[in-house]
Amino acid sequence: xxxxxxxxxxxxxxxxxxxxxxxxxxxxxxxxxxxxxxxxxxxxxxxxxxxxxxxxxxxxxxxxxxxxxxxxxxxxxxxxxxxxxxxxxxxxxxxxxxxxxxxxxxxxxxxxxxxxxxxxxxxxxxxxxxxxxxxxxxxxxxxxxxxxxxxxxxxxxxxxxxxxxxxxxxxxxxxxxxxxxxxxxxxxxxxxxxxxxxxxxxxx
Length: 204
Fold this sequence. Notes:
Blueprint: H1 8-18, H2 31-43, H3 47-50, E1 58-59, E2 64-67, E3 75-78, H4 81-100, H5 120-137, H6 147-158, H7 163-170, H8 183-201
Antiparallel strand pairs: 1-2, 2-3
Helix pairs in contact: 1-2, 1-6, 2-4, 7-8
C-alpha cells in the first residue's frame, strides 16, 4: 500500500462528516452514496468490492460479510458494530426504494444499485466519479475514492497498529496469515480500526 495520501486524518474526517446520511441537497448525490462512502471507510474495502455487496452476503446477526468476487474464493470478513449498522441501514433503505421503484427487479439482491441494470464495475466507476466531483466542490486535496483506503492504512501505520491487525482490516494476505487466525481474532482487529476511526472523525 504505497503512496498514501497526505493528511490521512483530514481526508477521513472530511469524507465521513460530509457523507453522513441524509446528505445535503447541494452535494447533488443520493443518500445511497453516503452509505457507500461511510462503508468504504468503516470496512476499508476497495470500491470495486463494495459495489458487489449483496443482501444475502451480509449477516447482521453474526456481523460478517461474505465477499464473493469473480473467480476468487469467497472470503469471510468480520464486521465491526459500526459497519454492521451501516450495512443494515443501507439494506433497509434499499428495501424502501424497491417499493417505490417499479424498474427494480423483484429478485434484485444488490445493496447498491446506482442506476437500473448497472454492473458492479460501472457502479464502482460511478461512485468514484461522484466522490471526485464532491471532493473538487469541497476543495479537498485528495479527490479519489480509493484514497479513503490508503488513508486508513496510513493512519493505522502512524499510530503503530501491528501489520497483523492492518492485514486483517485491509484483508491483505501478505500482511497476515488468515488461515491461521480465527474469526474472533480478525474481529478484534476491525474493532481496533473502528475505535481509531471514531477518535478521528469526532475530533476537531
